Amino acid sequence: MGDIVNKLDMLKELFNIGVGGAATALNKIVKTKLMITVPDVYLVSASEAIELLGPAERQVLSVYIRVSDNFPAGILIMLDDESAKKLVKLSMSGIDTQKMDELMFISVLKEIANIMTSYFLNNFSQFVKMPLSPGLPHFALDMAGAIMQSVISEHKEKAGDLLIVKTEIYNEVEKIIMDFILIPEDLSLKLLFEKNV
Amino acid sequence: MSEICYVTIGNCVWEKSPATLLCKGLGSCLAISFYDTERKEGCLVHVLLPYSEQSEAPFYYVNLAIAEIAKRFNSRIKAQKIVSKLCGGANIFPVTGKSVGERNIEAAKYWLAYYNITIVGEDVGGNEGRNVVFEMSSGNMIVSTIKRGSIII
Question: Chain B residue closest to A148 (CA)?
Fold first, then answer.
């Protein structure tokens, strides 16, 4: 049991370092100070995982990025409409975001997610001692439950519990709240723990 | 208004009229209803993945769930008139190759045909998440999405 607790603590710490990088990158883009919460690690069933993010029918914007095949995992960035608008506005200083069309808006969000994920993986790869690269970012505006469930089904082949690491990146003044979620597959967890324990 | 029972992933709930069953946030998941039109009873199952050999949690997989339910219908009700409705299997994030949603739909159609269960309604595929309400009193399935609103199948 102690062994598992140690492993989860290690995962939490690695994730924290990774997210630190992602938040710093975002910091530079939006030129606003952002805080991160202490990460939470959950070992839950698929149906519990969906409830982690609040009501399943809540409408959210999200960007999903798949991590390279040598470390199979999914990264999901989820935020509400207000936070997304604020982020895009701050990152595109000098441009009137009111006039921006939807495609452009989505593109900016995807790029933000891409940069954050790259920094995250860069930090993370130093610990897993292999190069990690992000896949293409995919955008969706939908129910939180449906998004989470679709990502889970991409990274799960069997019933049973899955591990989810989650943190919040936020700025209270600007009212930005963003969920940064890592869903590592079993193979990745094995790699991670074997190389570092 | 009768009580609404929430069907979570990997679960199957059996009910009779006038109960109402609900699946929230269906992405690539499928909700499959089985309904005995004469007795007004049946079940709703919420499956996640298309196929597995054998599992302790059969309702996570399309093939095992349909097999299990067909078996239960035969032993319990001996009804020939079971009808099924399918909903979900969306492809929310475009992935390379065949998406889990598409594979779920294919598997469900294959296995329902295998057990001679007729599909009387479906709202599958697309790229939107769905909420599904299944009314035992009428056998109606009310599907709602964010962009499209509600439809009845």
Answer: B27
